[in-house]
Predict the 3D structure of the following.
Amino acid sequence: MNKRKEFSKLNLLDRFLFDEAMEDSENMKTVLDIILGQDIPLRLPPHSEKEIRTFPDNRQVRLDVYAWDDDDTVYDTEAQKEDTKNLPKRSRFYQAVLDSNLLPPGSVDFNKLNRAFIILIMPFDPFGKGFYKYTFRMKCEECPDLDLQDDATRIFLNCHGTHPEMVSPELIELLHYMEKSTNEVAGSCTSQKIKLLHQKVCQIRSNKKMEAKFMRAWEEREIERQKAFAEGEEAGIETGKTQGKNDLLKSQVKKKLEKKYSKEQIADMLEEDVATIETIINELQ
């Protein structure tokens, strides 16, 4: 059985703690206010792990934390600890599926599409430029000053940026705190918003019911992982040799694909890199 991370040592970049903390409207507002540098009044409580699917047989998308503000702007905010090497296209897919669910059935007025933000927070630099914040909007190549004005924005946040002059000190403090949500890091922050956020994070980590929920979630994932290995063994695959292990992994991935799991979910269940799972999926196809 794999070693479970201690609940008291979870950071905000750990998906479970991020989702639980961001379901609190004040916490979500704090994070959005700092990232976007403005006041974001949320209209409804955020939802974590919201599943969106355009059709029953289509690939599902699980949005980490999904929120709306008073102007009906939609925010999908994700904590992404692993460099899956596919974040640009993944964000494109998330944007497409998100948009497809914003208009009511039969609507033909695309101007009614909500303003939308896809925000990914990660402890690595996805583009290698050393920026803390990468903001993407559609522009015209022939006329860079011409904005498409489609109201879609994708933001990639890098906890390990090296250009502090390009963002606010408060954003840098937030990113450092999200990666290491400790008393020491919170104590070094000058932002009162982050100090209040840390108090609420500590309350979650000291909540025994929340710890039990985390343990159940971990155990369910571990059972799925062990079940996947058992399925491979039942198929008569030799696990003691290198080729056998590869065949076993392929068999497990195939079964998970048949159950409509995404490659990120499969990687999580089997404790493999997403890149490895993606290679296997390509081979199977």
About this structure: The longest strand covers residues 61-68. Residues 56 and 260 are 10 Å apart (CA to CA).
